[in-house]
Design brief:
Chain lengths: ~325, ~150
């Protein structure tokens, strides 16, 4: 905490937050609602914040607790004038929604800011010994998180508490924005994508991989939080998971159907997923479901040199074809 | 008990109505010898095949899945197989992460006149699946062995 660098960074953060609030104040009269984040039931959590009146803006808080991808709300608010505060990863979901004509560009106002990463609540929970009740105090700097819970104080290194997607983040700044508060950090391109975790997993033997998923999905409770939190799962009442005709999944409680649902989810996101990680964050039993989507994205990148959520005008790779595919080698019999 | 129990594996084939199903027919009319592990499902076009059919088949007890359509540029619907090629290729490469060998699933093109080629495809694909052995089962009577093997592997 005594680190001068972290304090000056915190100063920057306060400065861009004020700038962001000014931006929202300027735009709010033209908008029905602006979505951001604010404090929640305890100092360790934030919650989505819907700003309709000027006084709501004061409650806006941007911090490493701003984990939610607010783009998930946009398709449901179609037709309204909506402002949205986005992290870099969230902005890619907005781009993807625009690309698929699920929202109208003229109806949304995007507020960007330079994101330095958000925490993974599961990691914090683990560091606190498995439960996060009675948080009395929480303070964050760039390097540490200080938490007081049930008369115990914890000092956790920020770098270890960041979500995995943040440590390898390539888009800290919004890729699309109408207002940008603070100074941009600088984005990297698709070629810097890091799929080391997927590659390590693929080096395991076949029974190890299969067994791993059977073990992980054994505790899935089929709550579909992964689907509901996903900004690109827009079928809502027409989801394949609940369809009876075709009957993709039974109502039984078995690992096969749980695993099958994740494959359906990953495949329906092929060439669309921006790896915002909402599925994994929303999972109440901490199943690493993001890995399927990362693998899918890795294949899409390697085969079609395409990355979702960067260019709203791009054509998704599975909606087009070439007579001769450069990167597809067909089997010779 | 059927004589082939234990010798035959379950392979599901999705064939397009216009080329590959005709090709399989031609092979039959020509009386070409073929292994009997393959069960054919006729679909209107290879573009009709949702790659999730492949996973669904594997998870429900198939040991291998073969998809066959018209040769590129020969699709009855002009471009169905071009879309299919992209989708199926992605699914083929995706399978290892779930824990299936990618070789359990292949897609190819056989025209209605290529009875010989059909025989060759079926024979070598069946061989390929027999080399891999039965796919891991999640449910049903064969599942208990696999599950205990998995637990041991972890």
């Amino acid at each position: 905490m005594g680190n001068p660098r972290s304090e000056s960074n915190k100063g920057d953060q306060v400065k861009f937050q004020e700038e962001l609030k000014d931006n929202i104040r300027k735009a709010l009269p033209e908008l029905d609602v602006v979505i951001g984040w604010c404090g929640s039931f305890d100092p360790l959590h934030a919650t989505p914040h819907f700003m309709r009146r000027e006084e709501d803006i004061d409650k806006l808080e941007i911090s490493p607790l701003s984990v939610h991808n607010l783009a998930t709300y946009l398709p449901g608010l179609r037709g309204k004038k909506v402002g949205i505060v986005v992290k870099g990863c969230d902005s890619r979901s907005v781009v993807e929604l625009l690309q698929e004509n699920l929202i109208n560009r003229e109806d949304i106002t995007i507020f960007g800011f330079p994101c330095t990463g958000v925490v993974d609540q599961s990691k914090i929970k683990k560091a606190l010994g498995g439960h996060t009740g009675n948080i009395e105090f929480c303070d964050m700097s760039e390097s540490v998180i200080v938490i007081k819970s049930e008369d115990k104080a914890y000092t956790l290194p920020m770098a270890e508490m960041l979500a995995d997607k943040c440590s390898s983040c390539r888009y800290p700044d919004a890729v699309i924005s109408d207002y940008f508060a603070g100074e941009k950090i600088g984005n990297k391109g698709e070629e810097d994508a890091d799929y080391a975790a997927v590659e390590t997993f693929e080096n395991l033997s076949v029974p190890e991989r299969f067994g791993y998923w059977l073990k992980e999905f054994d505790r899935c409770i089929r709550c579909y939080a992964c689907r509901n939190a996903c900004p690109l799962c827009v079928c809502r009442d027409h989801c394949a998971a609940e369809s009876r005709d075709p009957h993709w999944l039974s109502q039984e409680n078995n690992v096969r159907d749980k695993l099958m649902f994740q494959v359906i989810h990953a495949y329906h996101l092929a060439g669309r997923c921006t790896e915002c990680g909402e599925c994994q964050r929303a999972c109440p039993v901490d199943i690493p479901v993001l890995m399927f989507k990362q693998k899918m994205n890795k294949e899409i990148r390697d085969t079609f040199q395409y990355e979702a959520g960067v260019d709203p005008e791009a054509t998704p790779p599975l909606l087009s074809f070439k007579m001769k595919e450069e990167n597809i080698t067909e089997k010779v019999w | 008990m059927p004589v082939l129990t234990g010798k035959e594996l379950r392979i599901v084939g999705f064939l397009c109505n216009w080329c590959s199903y005709g090709g399989a027919d031609t092979a039959g009319i020509g009386r070409f010898n073929q292994p009997t592990d393959l069960r054919i499902i006729k679909v209107p076009c290879s573009g009709r095949i949702d790659p999730l059919f492949v996973v669904k088949a594997l998870m429900n007890g198939a040991d291998g899945v073969l998809v066959s359509g018209c040769h590129p540029r020969d699709c009855h619907y002009a471009e169905g197989n071009f879309y299919a090629r992209r989708r199926l290729e992605i699914m083929h490469n995706f399978l290892p992460i779930i824990g299936y060998e990618p070789e359990r699933f292949e897609y190819t093109w056989v025209s209605a006149s290529e009875g010989q080629r059909w025989q060759q495809v079926v024979t070598s694909f069946t061989e390929q699946i027999h080399k891999l052995g039965p796919a891991p089962k999640i449910l049903g009577p064969e599942a208990s062995d696999t599950l205990s093997l998995m637990q041991a592997a972890l």
